[in-house]
Please model this.
Amino acid sequence: MDDDPDPADPLPAALAQRWPLKGADDLREDLAAAYADPARAHHGTRHLREVLDHLDEIAASGEGFDPVSVSLAAWFHDAVYDGERDAEERSATWAEEALAGLVDDATVAEVARLVRLTEHHRPEPGDTAGAALSDADLAILAAPAERYAAYVEAVRREYAHLDDATFAEGRTAVLTKLREAPTLFATHYGLATWERAARANVDAELASLAAATV
Model:
């Protein structure tokens, strides 16, 4: 499956070049190792690359945000991902500890704030950085049918320790909470480019989950 990381090549050269901090290669490699964990069927190296690609799309559309803090937040947003609670909080704490002394205090605080925001994907109006990161993270919801199916299957593998009914209940709750928001996306680009397809995919998945639990 394309979502599977390759332990022998946890960070392809093209992705390594997108690390925004010079002189912090050890931290980059620590993050690379985290994303390359074989237990990550979806939230692995490919997901990181796609989030960074989507940020590039959003920036190219004219949406303004600080590229360094948002890029760092993208690298850290799933730094911890183990299927347990508070992964975003633990990822943010890692960012706060690891970035101290590498960037100024305001950037550390902003990166941690953005990572914590990915728990709910509800940026406040005017939060251009939060909107960009949230949209880049959720853009997978708008993927073509084959890619979306692979994403759904990969998420299920990450929760293989749960029985089908428990997983379906949790997945339904997550998707329903997203679906109830006025919009899934917060940037002009996300709304124009991804909103319709994402809602169609989410609605179809919710219907499938409901049918499976009847």
